[in-house]
Write a structure and sequence with these properties.
Blueprint: H1 6-16, H2 20-31, H3 34-50, H4 60-82, H5 89-98, H6 107-126, H7 129-140, H8 145-152, H9 156-178
Length: about 180
Amino acid sequence: MAPNPAPARAGFESAALAHLDAAYGLARWLVRDPDLAEDVVQEAVLRGLNYASSFRGEDGRAWLMRIVRNTAYTMLAARRRGGPAEAEGGERAAEAMASHPDPADDPEAALARRQDAGRLERALAALPIELRECLVLKEFEELSYKEIARITGVPIGTVMSRLWRARQALIAMGEEERDGG
């Protein structure tokens, strides 16, 4: 007799589905296209539901983020094989971020916020994906080194190294921009 998948599915739903916003945030930073990020999260949730029986009650957020990461890489690889559509994703993501100013902002503050968001988007987009994913998981999703290591499948020391390299690259980009270069 086959095991009942209902308890595993319920465990996945309660542990992972609460983190859909974080999943979308990671997907958006990895694929740099808001529409593709939605597809990635949808596919990741479907995969999670299909493999809910392998969920053993560990950290649902890390488990879902690992599925999102793997799905994003799979979809990016498929897109690369299919054509150059990914190149425009970063521009659309920056436009989407910049087009939603805080309603409390005055026009000058809204402009500064859009410029800052655009600079951040360009700087993160310039990072190699393995550095960007670690930085996003640490700084935006506030995950621990251990959780990031579990999601990315690399040792904690590698996570720490990637974070250091990502931060150094962002500092260098900021200095270049400030120096006019």
